[in-house]
Amino acid sequence: MASCPSNREEIIELAQLEVLGALENADGVRLERLFREALPALQREVVDLQASMAVESLLLPVIEPERSLRLRVLASVAQAVEATDAELAPIASIGRPVSASRSLTSPFDRDSSATAQTNEPLPSLIDGRWRKSARYWRAACIASIAGLAAVMVFQVATARQAARIGELALQNSYSDELRDLLGKDLPEILEEGRIIRGLVGATARDNGSFTVALAPTFDEVLILWVDPALRQTFSLQSVDRQSGVVQTVGNFVAEHRLGGTGFKIPVGIANANSDWRVLDQRGSMLFTSRPTY
Question: How far is CA 150 from its chain centroid?
C-alpha cells in the first residue's frame, strides 16, 4: 500500500520523536502500522534518519558528576587505609627488639638468677618462632590457593557440562517438534542433500527468520520458521534469478514460534538458483533471501 504525502510527513515526525524518547504508546503503535504499510523506499529513509539521529552528539545527554564526589572518594580511601593500618599494627609489632636484661625466667623466681643467665635471650627466641610460624602460614596459604583453584576448575567443568546437556535437550525438543510437523527431523532433511536458503527480514525492523529447503529433484520444498507473527497467513514465492519470473508455491499459517511445513511443487517452479520470499496476507514482502538493505 503506497503512503500518501501526509502519511510520509507523519511517519517522519513520529520516527524523530521515537529516537528522542518522547513518543507515547498510542503513537508508537500508529508508527509501527504506518511503517509496515509504507513503501520500501520510505522505510529505508526512516531507518537511515533514525540511525543518523541516534549518533548525533547534540542529542546525547550530558551527565556531570557532583563536585563533592571526588572529596567523598578520597575520604573513603583514607578511611580504608587507616582501617588496614590498624588491623596490621599487631603483626608489625612482632619481633620488636627487647632489652637484653629481659629473659625467659619468671620475675618471681628471684633465686634462679644463675640459671636465667644460661637461657637464650627473648628476641632470638621470638625471631625463631616467627620464622617457624611464617613457614606454617605460607604452607597453609599455598594449600588453600591450590584447593580454591581445584574447586574453580571443577565448577567451570560442571557449568560447561550442564550447558551442553541443556543445549542437547533443547535440540532434541526442537527436532521432535519438527518431526511432528514435517514427518522428519533436521538430520534427515540435511541427509537428503536439499538446497538450503535462509530468509531474513525485508527491512531492518522485521523480526524472525525463515529457511527454505528445496529437494534435489526440485519437486518438493520445506519452509521452516523461527519467531514469525503468529496465526497469520503467509505466502511463499520463488523468483527466478535470471528471468525474474515469480511463482507462488503455496500459503501457510504459523501457529507456533518454531515450526515448518512442506509443499509438493511441479518441476520448473523452482531451481537451484531460485530466490525465495515470504509475503503477508496483504501482499507485502516480509522476508527474502536477497535483502536490499
Answer: 28
Cα separation, 225 vs 257, in Å, equals 7
- Whether 126 has a pLDDT exceeding 80, the answer reads no
**Range 56-59, long-range pairs (CB < 8 A, 24+ positions):** 59/19, 59/20
Length of the chain: 293
pTM: 0.38
Secondary structure string (H, E, C) spanning 12-32: HHHHHHHHHCCCCHHHHHHHH
- Cβ(232)–Cβ(251) below 8 Å: no
280 contacts: CB under 8 Å, gap ≥ 6: 229, 232, 233, 234, 235, 286
- Give pLDDT, residue 236: 93
φ, ψ for residue 280 (rounded to 5)?
Answer: -85, 180
Instruction: Give the mean model confidence (pLDDT) for residues 177-188.
Output: 62
Residue 103: pLDDT band (50, 70, 90) is very low
* pLDDT over 50 at 115, yes or no: no
Three-state secondary structure call for residue 153: helix
Neighbours of 256 (CB within 10 A): 13
